[in-house]
Amino acid sequence: MGFWQQLGGKHRADLAEYGFQSIKRNLAFRYFTWRWSWSSIRRSEQMRFLLRHSSPLSIVRCALAAADLSDDTWSGMRWPSSGKGSSADATEPLDSGTEEDLGKMWPKRDRWLYVFAVRLLWRYATRHDPTRTTALPEPLTGNPLPVMSSGRLISQDLANSALELAAIERVLDGRRPASILELGAGYGRTAYALMSRYPQATYTIVDIEPALSISRWYLSLLFDPSRLRFLHPEDAGQIASDSIDLALSISSLQEMTPDLVAGYLALFDRASGGGVVYLKQWLSWFNPVDKVRMTFDEYAIPGRWSLKFKEPAPVQTNFVQAGWHVATLPSPGAAAVALPAATQTIQEPVA
Ligand SMILES: C[S@@+](CC[C@H](N)C(=O)[O-])C[C@H]1O[C@@H](n2cnc3c(N)ncnc32)[C@H](O)[C@@H]1O
Fold first, then answer.
1. Which one, of 15, 8, 20, lies nearest residue 219 by Cα?
2. Same domain membership, residue 130 and residue 271
3. pTM
């Protein structure tokens, strides 16, 4: 059983317990919403980055601005309060708290730290936001955390998406994508930003359950469903060759096995001839379940992709982000690589 297949059971249990309505307070933290806690803050690469890139005045303002930390507004934040992840910035893909941690509310000091970190991140993102993603409202759908700045609701997901869109537009180089494919979209935070930025674009998500049902629920409430397509991995063959202008994957590949990654890169290659690809993945990550270390530099990038940039991601500096143009010329050998059967994992629909 692979890493995400094993996680699927926990995710479905979370979903059964908390429901779709509060997805931003539980399952999002298994995707790309990060948690900070005082017990591990000294090891946090993200906090180091944010402090280094904030003026002393900003730091003081973020720390001193009033914050509502009441139990009522933070209801449902029942993650382990100690920072026992594989890294201080861990999204806790595996449960890492002890039995007695589980189910406890975040303590107020960690709520404060979360607000402080998100405010720092927000300020950084607004300074590096050519797509104006931080001007979008944070959707109330999914019950976001009550983090306010200058009188408005802000979120780390919108801030991170702003930084990702800034990189994506560098590789798009002025083109406006009419069709976007995302592999492993979590609850749909990046899709929200991209679909808002490109209101004419259609958006296809390839994912396993329960994430596929979650992003379908979330995005269908926010956008015209005719713009959306949701595919299980075994249905990815429905995506026509050269039909995609922008293909992306954020923090999905490193948690798969090498044959799965090769299959998905071949899918991107086949689908996005003439388009662009954006990847943001851990530089190197040990998958404890499949016992495999995935390293960005070892991904078998198809020969017809030409690299436009590759660099440490901002804020999540343990991640690499890169963008490629995909030529329209046939890719040598690409057609021979099919999605491995192992992608056919957790498919039962979630209620
Ligand atoms: C760490 S989350 C990242 C989510 C999202 N990209 C984000 O940044 O918010 C990993 C995503 O990869 C998906 N995933 C895991 N294994 C997969 C597989 N075999 N095929 C497709 N998606 C997969 C998960 O369901 C999840 O949506």
1. 20
2. no
3. 0.90
